[in-house]
Amino acid sequence: MPLIGQSIPRCDAEGKVTGDTKFGGDFYEPGMLFARMLRSEHASADILGIDTAEAESQEGVVGVYTARDMEGTNRHGLIIRDQTVLAETRVRYMGDAVAIVLAENEHIAEEALKLIRVNYRPHKPITTIDEALADGARHIHPKGNVMVEKRIRKGDAKGALRNECDVVVQETFNTQTVDHAFLDLEAGCAEYDGKLLTIRASGQWVHEERRLIALALGVPVERVRIIQPATGGAFGGREDISIQICLGMCALKNPGRGIYMHYSRAESMSARHKRHAIRCRYTLGAKSSHATGPYRVPNVEVDVYGVHTNNNPTGAMRGFGAAQMAIAYEGIIDQLAGKLGMDRVELRLKNLIRSGECVTTRQVIPNATPIDCLHAALARFARIDHSVLNPESGIRESLSAWRLRNYETQAAHLRRGYGVSAICFGLGYGDNFPDTSRARVCFNSQAGLEVYSGAVECGQGVINIIAQIAAEEMGMPIGCVRVTVADTLLTPESGSSSATRQTYFTGTAVKMACAELREQLFDIAGAYFGVHPFEVVIEDGILYNKNDRSQKMSVGEVFALGLRRGHKLEATGIFKPPTQPENHETGLSQLAFITYLFGAHIAQVLVDTETGEVSVERYIACHDVGKAINPQQIEGQIQGGVAQGIGMAVMEEVIFSDHGKLLNTGFTDYIIPTIRDLPQIEVVIYEGNDASGPYGAHGVGEPPLIGTTPAMVGAISDALGIPITRTPATPERIWRVIQQAGTLRQRP
Amino acid sequence: MFFQPHTIEEALALKREHGAAASFIAGGTDLIVMMNRGRCPAKNYIDLSHIPGLDEIKRARNDNPPADRMPPGAAEIYTAGCCATFSRLAELPVTCLAGAALSVGGPQIRNRGTIAGNIVSASPAGDGSTALLSLDAALELRNANGPRLLSLRDFFLDYRKTALADDEMIVSIRFPAAWKSAWQKLGKRGAMNISMVCCSCAVSESGRFYAAFGSAGPSPMKARRTEEFLTGAAVRTGDGGMTLSGKAIDEAARIAQEEVQPIDDFRGGADYRRAMAGVLLKRALRQIIA
């Protein structure tokens, strides 16, 4: 039975069910010292002095450390290393770390924090885009408040708008700041034995974290070991450094002592980076029958500015920047359809890119499947089993079901709406950024297969993907495979668990390594059978002479024989496909990303127009996953992404006061959906077979969230007959939109 | 100190000894959250969960002469012990209270959270308190010297301030068993949900209307003008029930919107809460007369 395509139970399931699994917070042991951080109480201030004497003099306080005690760069940052680990001359957000107290217990540490005197000179914080860009605005970083500028120029957008377009739509979209809200709070431990600094804390790319930690602390990288504990969710929220450098600093200063540190939910919320809020001004022109994202747009002009503020730092979150833009491009497509008097689905089917066409940045996509995904989603919408019908009639039937969708409700104040979205997402880092996964495979003394990869398991299921690919490629039972991930001492670097890349990148590296190791087995078995290695096959852990199946040996026998004959029996796979940089002036690139992922969603909602409440009646998510290596994991990923996307659409929002204080630091006020807020999420797995990925697979981590918010927003807009341009569309916001409109238009 | 008395008398003696420095604790769904946030409300805790019978709910005829009845208009009442949990209350055939109880937190919280805890916390968003206000419930308070009865409407004084003395505890809550009632709550999600506004309505056997709102003022509040208007506007139907015209319901909502005093904060705008008070009242009234 092939292992690819099987929902093999998760390798880490048993420990999680029995409670044996150790997360970062489970590593505390008696005798460890507790570290706590002092955080800035101002969003913007100069630090004139820090007096730690009183705190240091307390019984049980082992040390109080500030930036002065840091022996390395004291910097971190995912792309630009410009964030201070401990503040030096200024603080830039309320929550910026200023000092660390290390004490015999948490209570002493907590009390000592209150005795540190920081002399601040506060400034009025910059909390909005407009304030940051205002003339004479205080510079948050030395180079000014515009952190990054990007542009895309394709064709002549201004000319086309002026001369060729019959219809032009313009809109400004605003999205909110969003928290990752993973359940497993930042926690971990560290110890320095005089030779090696070992840190156990959850990140998303242990090897990069090791580099950052070593540089920030001023220790050689080989003296740092990072071990990823079991991790309960990341979603990009562990890509930036959290507690690791502070743990390391305390350990280095106190050799032989275990150091423990954990955040409360409130500290986690106030300290961690968030998803960027964006403001997007969009102008889209079209000819009368006939958009960026997954659409064919011949003329494009894009200017992007990233702006510093004194709110929390922003960074990666599931669909880094992509989820926000999808709200805008799908919203504007819906508006275009309205202005053209066209059905939203038909407009999309007409304009979505096809195989062999190019995305906005001019990269040709050999296997573009957004239309197939939309067809499959529509078929589910119409409750047609696509597989048993002739595709042509199936498409006709599902389109007519869409056209006849039901708007009738049980009461006049309840209005139904339908939303649709298409997803186009570049997998991996792209833009010529080095993107590499490695895997090492060998046998243990029982002839079990050991697979080593630096990939981080943060709950998404990469361990199973690695195990299933390894077992399949080796021809061995999955029970003989043991996977070790994310330990900088034992595993080779495999890049981050982000960018929807691990199945594709590490999966390929594992497949390559196993293919090589299998060939080594074939060499040994072939010599023993007296045949060419090409004549050897392996099935379920037994090697056969394929011309005479009575000649057979188990992997264990071949392994033992190999060892006696001096074979090493190990292999490494390195997958490092190239991408090409974007042109600085035009933003165009023939190979901006190694491959693209597509999908389509349909949302059906009921809006209570008296209260503004939204209930999701149906949700359909179709994704081209290439090949579903473990379908149940894919379903889980898609359902989780949709749940997060529904949260982003209608409830989740980090709220800052005018002083830059984060007001909702817990789940009482930072509202995320519960099971009661979600429908049965209908997952449609489309297998488009990506020839460049392992067994045709690519990835599915981020796209589900990206498609959800726009489909939800589209559905609410449809219900009201008014475009929603600000997220989240909370009941109160919807109510205000309705109040402003006065009356809602009658349904035709 | 953490005390575990086995009788009410022991508990009250401890309370007399420690006064404001001691807090009763039962389900702990409020207090333990506060402790976790480093805001211990008291130095000492008197655990009520080892006193037998405090979680019982009994139904009985209100035998007092009408003048002494608490609550006044009820011929038949429930008496819920202070430690009765939301899960138990959710099973009662009292629509508004059961609805309120079922809308609190999630199953785990409902299994531990108690009705007296909800009342003494005096949270403006207290769902249970709001429902009980609309039932004109009465509290049996007791200190070491003996009991007193207090109507719930006289219990909430201001934001998080109540008429409970430092040496007193709520022993039980009495509320009508057979009034028609309705519950409406607007929150931000389907569960684990703090009221943005909630509204509870009830009508007594004699046809008097009661209406209360949560998250619409400094504490759960009775809407007295709304109640009076409704009582005056209601018409008795052939089967002995009460009914209201559409116009009367609209007018009641208008009065209620004037009467509520919601705040404007990051959780919601005052104008929205005010408007929703009206919407919820209409829905509750329609349920009652249906």
CA(first)-CA(last) distance of chain B: 52 Å
**Helix coverage percent of residues of chain A?**
25-40%
Q: CATH homologous superfamily of the largest domain in chain A - what is it?
A: Aldehyde oxidase/xanthine dehydrogenase, molybdopterin binding domain
Q: Give the chain pair forming the largest contact, with residue counts.
A: A-B, 24 and 19 residues
CATH class placement of the largest domain in chain B: Alpha Beta
Q: Are there runs of chain A of 5+ residues with pLDDT below 50, and where? A: none
Quick take:
The complex is a heterodimer of chains A (748) and B (290). By secondary structure, chain A is α+β, with helices and mostly antiparallel strands. Chain B has 290 residues and is an alpha+beta fold.
Structure notes:
The complex is a heterodimer of chains A (748) and B (290). Chain A contains 18 helices and 27 strands. Chain A is α+β, with helices and mostly antiparallel strands. Chain A has a 7-stranded mixed sheet, sandwiched between helices. Chain A has a 4-stranded mixed sheet with strand order 17-25-26-27, sandwiched between helices. In chain A, helix 11 packs across helix 12 and helix 16 crosses helix 17. Chain B is an alpha+beta fold and 290 residues long. Chain B has 3 domains: 46 residues, Uridine Diphospho-n-acetylenolpyruvylglucosamine Reductase, domain 2, CATH 3.30.43; 120 residues, 2-Layer Sandwich (Uridine Diphospho-n-acetylenolpyruvylglucosamine Reductase, domain 3); 106 residues, CO dehydrogenase flavoprotein, C-terminal domain (Enolase-like, domain 1), CATH 3.30.390. Helix content of chain B is 32%, strand content 25%. In chain B, the strands form 5 sheets. Chain B has a 5-stranded antiparallel sheet with strand order 4-5-10-6-7. Chain B has a 4-stranded antiparallel sheet with strand order 11-12-13-14, sandwiched between helices. In chain B, strand 2, helix 2 and strand 3 form a beta-alpha-beta unit. In chain B, helix 4 runs antiparallel to helix 7. Chain B is globular, with a radius of gyration of 19 Å. The relative contact order of chain B is 0.12. The mean pLDDT of chain B is 95. Classes of the chains: A alpha+beta (748), B alpha+beta (290). At the A-B interface, helix 18 of A face helix 10 of B.
